[in-house]
Amino acid sequence: MKSINFFILLCCFAVNAQNKDIKIAFIADAHFADVYPNGLDIENLPKTHDGQPILIRSMESQLHSTRLFNENYMALKAALKDAVVNKGIKIIAMPGDFSDDGQPLHIRKLNKILNAYTIKYGVDFFMINGNHDPTRPFGKQGGKTDFLGKNGKLQPIMSADKLYHSNSTFENPTQISESLKEWGYEGIIKELNEYGFFPKEEYIYWETPFSNYNYKHYKFEFASEASKLSNRTFTFKAGQKSLPDVSYLVEPVEDVWLLALDANVYLPKKNGKGFHGAGIGYNHVMKYKPYLITWTEKVVKEAKRLGKTLIAFSHYPMLDFNDDASDEMKELFGSDKFQAYRIPNNNIGQTFANIGLKIHVGGHMHLNDTGIINTV
Q: Which string of DSSP letters, residue by residue, matches 237-281?
């Protein structure tokens, strides 16, 4: 079993199906942000030499983050060009954090860029969400306080009034734009509906953990009904609000199955007002989404029975991403350093290996690593 993690790095699998070599690229953690927004009614933004407004974050914000913001626009375009133009790849999967906090501004431009590749080159994209898309299951107001603005000062931009107040002399006055709110599941998958979240008639097969048909009796009409967000929900326990899960299985070309696992787990706040963000991954999946393990086991068995090549992908790694040095790192630096809380428990990889899953591609940690575990 493999868990591979990327940060705007391009990974390609070549699989043999029906005696045809099929290449599949994976681009994780794009954290795409639109730095050249069109129609954004915001004053005080820097401009290019030809007068185009640019929406970039300050260098300070990048130095204090686990990710970049501004360069990702160009990095994603370069990765797509490499995969599609240079390598001729027609299937690209994106294992989460494809956006910067699920903001409409960024999601819409991402859709435009991907759609252009679909139209010009016939590329099929398949996405699954990460903890930055969406940050909360039903969305929330948002914005950023550290865009670069007029006279080199920071420019706060919020999605609604009264979200942020500052009297700092280092900032321009706060401006409002709804395009900086943070979309929930519904808004994101509606905008990105062409990229695996919903079935298409040209797909050979498509299902969810909650659908009740099988491969033999598959019909597009069945999948369309199963794909409605109202039919893709679960609860932690009786009486709690249902939460969406947009996991799916798709056969885009004959004998190749892509299993997209939604490993986001949003725990309710103790005061009952909303949910926490999703950032732990499979340590929470094992406890709060056990049906995903059951479903994955079923999919693995069906893939083997039908002779399908199965590749799973999700945002979070299933294996230790520190090359089995996590215990030593905790002892040396402390158990709360280097994001130790995100390290998957040992039983996670073993569980998925034991049910027969052989390949899993993930991201989240912004590093490139390969983990291997054997069945017991």
A: STTSPPEE---EEEEEETTEEEEEE-----PBPTTSSSBPPP--T
What proportions of the chain, in percent to the nearest 5, are helix, strand and coil?
30, 25, 50
> Residue 67 and residue 348: Cα distance in Å, rounded?
26
Q: How many residues does the chain have?
A: 376
Does residue 360 surpass a pLDDT of 80?
A: yes
Exposure class string for 108-123: b at 16+ Cβ within 10 A, else e: bbbbeebeebeeeeeb
Query: Whole-prediction pTM value?
Result: 0.93
Strand pairing class (359-361; 205-207): unpaired
Cβ–Cβ < 8 Å for 332, 283: no
In order, the DSSP letters of 216-238 are TT--HHHHHHHTSGGGSEE-SST
